[in-house]
Amino acid sequence: MIERLPPLDQRRLFFRYLARETVVWFEELLGKPNMQLSDLPKLPPESIAALIPRVCPGVRIIPGEGRVSARLPGAGESVLLFPDEEANLFVFNRFNGENTIGQVAGELGAAMSWPRERSFAHVKDLFFRLVRLKVCLPANTAPPGPE
User: Fold this and answer.
1) Which helix (H) or strand (E) is 119 found in, with range?
2) Closest alpha carbon to 142 in 48, 76, 4, 1
3) What is the pLDDT of residue 21?
4) Tell me, what's the pLDDT at 27?
5) pLDDT tens-digit readout, 80-125
């Protein structure tokens, strides 16, 4: 069953969307490229490696038995993020708004004795999962990919 939002919440969402789209439109007029979060996985590997992951403000991380969950601001229920395996915890603890995906992948590869490709794929996949769940965002702007 789909739960309908009250009219006030629907208006708030509409005006947030309108404001966001207006800002994007003006930035594009000024020559600043913009992209949707859903387009991040389409970036070339070198651009993904330059992204700096950070946890979104207000997200509450909840460690549990065998898993890590999060509660988003204003949400009543928590959402499962990932199993609390060593590699996941290692990576997530470095999503602090300071390290690039490439740096985290290099550190993970050294710590787990994994090849670069495997560690990069693990970091990238965890980051994109957390972006889809609205737990993480890039702290920096994605560098433009080749045209």
Assistant:
1) helix 116-132
2) 48
3) 63
4) 58
5) 999 999 999 999 999 999 999 999 999 999 999 999 999 999 999 9
Backbone angles phi, psi at 4, to 5 degrees: -85, 140
- Give whole-number Cα distances, 110 to 13, 90, 98, 106, in Å: 44, 12, 19, 6
Q: What is the pLDDT of residue 1?
A: 46
Q: How far apart are CA 147 and CA 139, in angstroms?
A: 23
- Say yes or no to pLDDT of 4 above 60: no
The whole-angstrom separation of Cα 28 and Cα 40 is: 18
- Domain 36-138: which CATH class? alpha beta
Q: How far apart are CA 36 and CA 80, in angstroms?
A: 24
Cα–Cα distance, 107 to 92 (Å, whole number)? 12
For the record, the structure tokens of 4 come out as: 């309908």
Token pair of 132 as six digits: 């889809």
Which of the 8 DSSP states describes residue 55?
E
Domain with CATH 3.90.930.60 in the chain: 36-138
